[in-house]
Specification:
- The protein is of the alpha/beta class and about 280 residues long.
- Helix content is about 40%, strand content about 15%.
- It contains twelve helices and ten strands.
- The chain has a six-stranded parallel beta sheet with strand order 2-1-3-4-5-8, sandwiched between helices. Strands 6-10 form a two-stranded parallel sheet. It has a two-stranded antiparallel ribbon with strand order 7-9.
- Strand 3, helix 3 and strand 4 form a beta-alpha-beta unit.
- Helix 3 packs parallel to helix 4 and helix 7 runs parallel beside helix 12.
- The chain is globular and about 55 Å long.
- The N terminus is likely disordered.
């Protein structure tokens, strides 16, 4: 591979192309849409995009990075998974070699593996902003919990633990601010919603919004691993529930206010908006 001779180092945000990895995902497609709405040049990257991008295939990286000045990094399946830090670090180094100056990394709160990825991205030499997010509201209408909501039962290994779920729209707003405003360079924003929620409370909120009974049924971690295997999902997903169960993230943080000067969206408002789309009609 040879470095791109086209540099974007001194380009303003209005001129440089932003590469959005995970461009069809929960955060990526929202980041891309917001940049496009501002009239900013955007390139989305995914397995099925016009220029295919695959994290596990470094030979796909250069074509996606050509002529790009900024990158939103959303790694799938999760920065806590084995090998993620090495992959993301290599990508960040390659991006800088190709002329990228601004990197915004979506990270997770309380994930030791994610901290390693953060350090590798910061060590790339780019202007870096890190956005650490709590679990997403949208896990219940766009993500892995949707089928459980439709089935009427959240069977999860979370006991009585609580989590300050954050809305993906808030994450996207913070990411776009970091991509377009130099004041956020070098910053680390920890994002949460405005209150702590247990899964029994979540089931009650979903029940009220949908007009159906949705229950919460605590299960063991082993039982949940068996469930993941039965649906062909990575067993490592079960380990992510430790982020909830051990209480490390059971407190509010204020990155949305710090970055945007406003309060984060409440789960009740998210549920009301999602219910109006009809996504939970069984």
């Amino acid at each position: 591979m040879t470095p791109n001779t086209h540099t974007t180092e001194n380009m303003p945000a209005t001129a440089r192309t932003t590469l959005v990895t995970g461009g069809t995902g929960k955060t990526g497609r929202r980041v891309a849409a917001r940049l496009t709405e501002r009239g900013l040049p955007v390139r989305t990257a995914s397995r099925g995009s016009e220029i295919p991008f695959v994290w596990e295939e470094p030979d796909t990286w250069d074509a996606a990075l050509g002529g790009v000045g900024a990158v939103y990094i959303s790694y799938y399946p999760d920065l806590a998974f084995p090998g993620a830090a090495e992959t993301v670090g290599a990508f960040a180094e390659r991006a800088v070699a190709m002329g990228v100056r601004r990197l915004v990394l979506l990270s997770g709160r309380g994930e030791e593996g994610a901290l390693i990825s953060e350090d590798k991205v910061r060590g790339s030499g780019a202007d870096v902003t890190v956005v650490r997010a709590s679990w997403f509201n949208q896990n219940f209408d766009e993500g892995f919990f949707l089928e459980s909501v439709l089935a009427g039962e959240l069977a999860l290994p979370t006991g009585d633990a609580v989590e300050p779920f954050v809305d993906v729209d808030d994450i996207a707003d913070v990411a776009v601010a970091a991509l377009t405003d130099d004041r956020h360079i070098g910053g680390t924003y920890e994002l949460s919603g405005p209150r702590l929620l247990g899964f029994a409370e979540i089931a009650a909120e979903l029940s009220r919004a949908t007009g159906r009974e949705i229950t919460y049924a605590p299960v063991t971690l082993d039982a949940y691993r068996d469930f993941l295997a039965s649906v062909g999902a990575p067993a490592d997903f079960a380990d992510l529930f430790e982020l909830i169960n051990d209480g490390r993230n059971a407190h509010l943080v204020h990155g949305v206010e710090e970055a945007l000067g406003r309060k984060p969206k409440d789960f009740t408002d998210f549920v009301a908006d999602a219910a109006r789309t009809g996504v939970w009609r069984a």
